[in-house]
Amino acid sequence: MDAVYLSVTEDLKGKSGIINLDVEDVWFIHFFSRKRIIEVHTETQILYMTGTLAYWQNALNTTYGFPFETVDRNIIVNVSRITCVDSVRSVAYFTSEITEKSKYCTFSQGNRKKMEHLKKLNPSIVTI
Known about the structure:
By secondary structure, this protein is of the alpha+beta class. 16% of the residues lie in helices and 34% in strands.
């Protein structure tokens, strides 16, 4: 498949202009309800775009076949980027070496059972 890009900005108001972000670089997408904007998390950045979480999940999964799954009402995660899940803390990590500064996303209590489902979608996910 050819690369798929999201149009995002580096600031909340879009004053930095639009940049294209390869979907493969996305770790997770979070709806920041207080600011009413979507945050797109990568390894090193938090970028912004408009729309709803449901819209982006449907568009990415249906149109392009990316494995984005809901893990919290405000978070969808790129399953192919998860390296491990912590079932005690209910979090997913995106790097193999976990430190205090590692970026992670949380699972809601209702979605904790999805951890096993995600491991079926991405068998390389390790439980810690």
